[in-house]
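Wed. Picked up where I left off yesterday with Low-specificity L-threonine aldolase. The coffee machine is broken again, so keeping this brief.
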Amino acid sequence: MLDFRSDTVTRPSPEMRKAMANAEVGDDVYGDDPTVNSLQAYAADRLGFEAALFTPTGTQANLLAIMSHCGRGEEYLCGQSAHNYRYEGGGAAVLGSVQPQPIENEADGSIDLEKARKAIKADDFHFAMTRLLSLENTIGGKVLSLDYQNRARAFCDDYQLRLHLDGARIFNAAVASGCDVTAITGCYDSVSVCLSKGLGAPVGSLLLGDAAFIGRAIRLRKMLGGAMRQAGVLAAAARIALEQGPFRLHEDHANAAYLAAGLAEVPALEIDPSLTQTNIVYARCRSGRAAELKKALAAQGILITAGDPIRFVTHLDVDRAAVDQLLAAIKQFYRQS
Ligand SMILES: *Cc1c(COP(=O)(O)O)cnc(C)c1O
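Structure written out below (tokens, as returned):
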């Protein structure tokens, strides 16, 4: 199987499986798991925060962030296409009584800060209290510029908002920006990071922030059922993902660029290869036959997400030869039909 649906499909390496089998563990709810403690300390240091918290999922890390920054009856500003608005079951509203205030994302994935300013509610008993701006980097595979993120920081300081980053793919952003990840994290009060995507861990995410913030998140994680016991078996793989994963993401980006250039040769597909900045490629099927294409590829053991547009994601389990196989299968599909 060649799976281009997502970078979440990556399997743990033999080295990860060995580390998991041999992990020293304890009850993490008592704070006794040395492998979790060591991962959290390493992550806080690596990303430039006071503290870090290991969570089962990125969805939970984002929810903990929003609920730790905002109380009942308060609100967060986010992009209309933000993962923590659209794809997390409305958790902030459902479980946190925190109102989302979505703002249409710009073409580059950013939120226009002037639009954000207009969305901040006045201090008036009619309104929810605006507490937080939440950005996402990368968003739909697009990278927010460092200049923009620094302006967002200054904006939040001016209007007394906290600033959160859904950094599920922050290391893809750092690689594409040619900077250390701390150049990005330094703009934010809190950051969530997925270890289970392109970095290759089977399970796990991190939430980072100052010690008081992480203290609130620990209480909420317990409440939400995310406090795990001998989680060191997961943290052992997560540690390898965090230490080593970032060093190979440039390969995924190169494979995505190569795929985008190849897809641009297919007349039936509409794609601008210059829009592929990281490991996600979007192409529109001019004839609206995406579902048929998906079926034909699946018959050859190739999986894609046939939305409109079609999405292809490169990752450590699909190499250049796999991309060539995908391109050949797509070209054959359109030749034959
Ligand atoms: C995948 C993803 C998440 C959530 O990750 P899960 O671990 O699947 O819950 C959050 N934000 C973004 C941008 C993502 O891509």
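Quick read: The pocket of pyridoxal-5'-phosphate is lined by residues 57-59, 62, 83, 136, 166, 168, 194, 196, 205 (CB under 6 Å).
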